[in-house]
Amino acid sequence: AATLTQRLLGMLGHAKPPATVQAVSNLSVEIRAGEVLGLVGESGCGKSTLARMVAGVHAASSGTALYRGQPVAVQQGARVVKTTTKVQMIFQDPYASLNPRHRIDRIVGEGPFTHGLVDKANLDDHVSRAMQRAGIDPAYRFRYPHQFSGGQRQRIGIARALGMQPEFLVCDEAVAALDVSLQAQVLNLFMQLRADHNLTYLFVSHDLGVVKHISDRVAVMYLGRLVELAPAAEIFTRPNHPYTQALLANMLTLNLRRRRFSAIKGEIPSPLNPPVGCHFHPRCPHAMERCMREVPVFRELAPGHSSACHLGDD
Ligand code: SF4
Ligand code: MG
């Protein structure tokens, strides 16, 4: 239980005014040093908001993301200022997250240089090493992002994160833009990096199939709430929450190329006006009268396996 902890308490996210969306609420989870925590849910469930808070890119309106007991970011006026370089984020879209006017050596080298992790004399070596670790030939460091394929650009994004000598990577749909064979390669790279550098991951995906292969534990979110958290093997063999069960059934029925959650009955309700009681009740095959009034408590069913559902309460 020593070492790294991430604790997210009562985090609230905001959408554009005038409407305020509670994107994530009353959520608390610890990520253990060296583990991969998979975070899954349909789009709009708040997982990206959560990922950004954990990575110190967004601030929570209340609650904190802590890294080794210290806030990952602090609010300074309108700005969110990160307080650690040890937590780095890898984004979904390698095209959007790389400045098209900057060469790769600058994209990868700027952060470490600015933060004093490397001096000018060693910068080129530092960049080359980060690229090598990410599986990109360092000979390409004088090229621009448009000269690379989508898969290579994602590796550049990874090299940029590695250049910061992170301990903890927050990956938000980091392989979602890639086709299936490239997805496998990049997932293997993440696992290799984890083994080589003892990295910890929060791995966010809408795709349970992606999360399955790399996670030690899996957290399932629905409309801003954590609905289930368990060791990966448990989630896939003994899912408790009806939403997790639906995701899993859906994963198994769809073919590998087009795994989506859309086959779950009904639309995701608007986060502006979430259903009262259990948020999942309009889509749940087991919904009872009580589910429409009472928010189910997130409770431990077995050691390390928690779920928020009224089923089996009595
Ligand atoms: Fe379904 Fe009720 Fe459980 Fe919600 S609390 S998942 S509606 S059975
Ligand atoms: Mg998202």
From TrEMBL:
Signal peptide: none annotated. One of its GO terms (biological process) is transmembrane transport. Keywords: ATP-binding, Cell membrane, Membrane, Nucleotide-binding, Transport. Belongs to the ABC transporter superfamily. SMART domains: AAA. The keyword Nucleotide-binding applies. Residues 1-248 form the ABC transporter domain. GO terms for molecular function: ATP binding; ATP hydrolysis activity. InterPro entries: AAA+_ATPase, ABC_transp_ATP-bind, ABC_transporter-like_ATP-bd, ABC_transporter-like_CS, Oligopep_ABC_C, P-loop_NTPase. The keyword Cytoplasm does not apply. This is Oligopeptide/dipeptide ABC transporter, ATPase subunit.
